[in-house]
Every structure is written in structure tokens, then in C-alpha cells.
Amino acid sequence: MTHTAIVSALHDELASVLALMPDEHQQVVGGREFWVGHLHGQDVVAVLSGIGKVAAATTATLLIERFGVKRIVFTGVAGGLGSGVQVGDVVLARSFLQHDMDASPLFARHEVPGYGRARFDAAAGLTDALELACDRMLHTLPQQLGAETVAAFGLQAPRLHQGLLISGDRFVATTAESAALQRELPDALAVEMEGAAFAQVCHDFGVPLAVVRTISDRADDTAHMDFPRFLREVASRYSGAVVEALFSNR
How far apart are CA 102 and CA 110, in angstroms? Predict the structure, then answer.
């Protein structure tokens, strides 16, 4: 049985996690590459989530059923929605919602049929531990990124935000879409494509989940920046540093 799953959204982020694992070995299940090993003496398995809610749900289920993980930590990028949530900030999910779930008129908009709810909670204890890891990372890493990177992405004072993370099978990258989500879900901090699916599966199996997302853009018409560079120079380093801080602090 593997104690902890570390899930990344993108290859560069997973690479930063694998660099922390001295003895990982690969297993392929369901077309996915799972890396089993240790991090600071703890049993871990690392994997890419896959893009979208179905791929994410499959990955979450395999982690729990095939690898027997007891907790899941997810790192990735997201588009900022909430007021003051800027590029380079970090959003720590306390709850999740599928913004494109709509089985009305049979059920209220956003409610997941069969559950009587629209929102699923992150695991409080694990998320609290991840909060401490994010605080440690934000106090040290941004100053190490280099003046050129900081200037390019406006990372002078990155902040940690906590609250609602919303997911959907749509890449939100226009001002019109972003504004519509802000009106409909004014407490949403950020939007991505996998977190709420992981939350629903983890709810079903009683497995603690914590999710942290680095803000790569504002999910609007200004979102078309140098994403590969941001991922390489900022997001992947954030992910590696947060995971390192989480495991070295336990």
C-alpha cells in the first residue's frame, strides 16, 4: 500500500516532483505512467492527472483502488477569477464545484445528481499542512526566481488565497467567459479542469484530498502569455518547492 499520491497537472510539474524521489520506478496502468517510490522516507506514487474531469476521475480511482493511497495531494496551474487573485499567486482549495454541471430542471444548477450537493470539501487537516508548506515556499522561492522572471510575470509580491476552486471541461480564456463565471459564482477564486472530479471521487472513497494551484493567467483575453516559460520558470518550481516543504515538515 502506498501512503500518499502526488498528482501534477502537467509534465514539467511532475518532473519537479520526480526529481525529489531518489528511487522511483514506473508502472503503467490504464494508459497512465505511475511513478512509485519514496520522498523523505514516505511511500509515494506520482502521476499526471490527465486533462478534464473524466481523465481526472479515472486517475483518482486508479490511485485509490490499484495503489491503495491514503491521501492525495494535487498541484497544478489555474486561471484566476477572484478579486486580487493575480498571476504568480497560489490558490489553496477549501471546496470544489463543477461549474459546467447542469442537470436542471431535475436538479438545481451545479448540484451533482445523487449527492444532494454542488460543493465538495477539501480535507481540512491535509489542507492545513499544505497551507504551511505554501507559506514556506512563498517566503523563500519567489526571491530565488531571478529578476528577469519576476519582472516578466509581475511576481513582486505573490499571495496565498484559500476558498472555492471550480472545474469544468472547458478551457476558460476569454473575458466574456471569465466574467460570466464571476457573476454566477462570485466566491470562486480560480478555474481549472480537474479538481472537482478528484474531490468527488475522494468523497466516494473517503480519501483525504488537498489541491494547490498556481495562477498562470486571469482566464480572460489577457491569458495568452508565454505559458511554456511560466510553467518552466515559475509553476514547476512552485510545485516542487511546495511538495518538498510538505514532506520535509512532517
Answer: 5
Position 1 scores a pLDDT of 47
Q: Is 121 labeled as catalytic in the residue annotation?
A: no
Domain that holds residue 65: 4-248
What pLDDT score does 230 carry?
A: 87
pLDDT given at position 190: 97
Active-site hit among 13, 131, 233, 244? 13
- The total domain count for the chain is 1
Q: What is the pTM of this model?
A: 0.94
Single out the catalytic residue among 24, 192, 194, 217. 217
Q: Are the beta carbons of 88 and 142 closer than 8 angstroms?
A: yes
Torsion, CA 188, CA 17, CA 31, CA 73, rounded to 10 = -40
Question: Annotated catalytic, 217?
Answer: yes
CA atoms within 13 A on the CB side of 130: 30
User: First and final CA of the chain: distance in angstroms?
Assistant: 19
Domain of 43: which CATH number?
3.40.50.1580
Stretches where the chain sits below pLDDT 50 are 1
